[in-house]
Amino acid sequence: TFTPPLCPTVCGDAALVDIVFATSPVAAAKSTRRSMAFFKKVARGLDIADGKVHIGMVPKECDSVDAVDLKEAEQKQNAVLEKLDTILANQQSTASVLRYMREASFAEKNGARQKAKRIGVIIVDDAEGSLADAKRQARVARREGDIELFIIGVGKKIKRKELYALATRPVKQHVFLVRNYKALGGWVAKKVQKAICPHADSCGDRLTGARDSPTKDSGVGWR
């Protein structure tokens, strides 16, 4: 397994960012583990430290027991990556994920910083079905919560236009599609890193592994 080295200065001076990750509420345990590995790859390329990037995670079943709060005392890269290892999230729905993200994850009492840019990165599985409620929650999150939403769709049945309804505009910069969880590799992580932080390529291919580059079968942006 390729383990990328830490590269803690990717975002340079564009520092004050609060990022919250969320897995699909309908993913199987194995797929959730792949999701968490993917989030770790993204996190490895970000400058996690006090006064810079903070990482949070929507917890299992949207309660506070397994949350990774933005106020974690040890907002350092190694500590955050270790914490992500302990989470196997299993939320109720993408709508509940979005609601929790807005009401709890980005609440100041849980460590959200007033002047920080707010970013949510959510994996949506094609097995979930209707996203009507999620669309409403996404609209509120974007407009009232001032959260920039990145959406990663997984599965052959997923509809691009439904993901577009969840994401921040311009949607083509905020929506990524893969055929399956195996395709959530380093190349996708690097694209997400660069979307979050335009200077995320300053460490080159060390961030996520150049050999994880896309092929015609990788499933990235496949529809």
What this model shows, in words?
- Residues 18-192 form the VWFA domain.
- The chain has helices at residues 29-44, 77-85, 94-105, 132-143, 160-166, 186-196; strands at 17-22, 53-57, 117-125, 147-154, 175-178.
- By secondary structure, it is of the alpha/beta class.
- It has one domain (17-212): Rossmann fold, CATH 3.40.50.410.
- A five-stranded parallel sheet has the order 2-1-3-4-5, with helices on both faces.
- α1 (29-44) links the parallel β1 and β2 (53-57).
Helix and strand layout, with pairings?
Layout: E1 17-22, H1 29-44, E2 53-57, H2 77-85, H3 94-105, E3 117-125, H4 132-143, E4 147-154, H5 160-166, E5 175-178, H6 186-196
Parallel strand pairs: 1-2, 1-3, 3-4, 4-5
Helix pairs in contact: 1-2, 1-6, 3-4
Pfam family, one: VWA
Domain VWFA: 18-192
Protein name: VWFA domain-containing protein
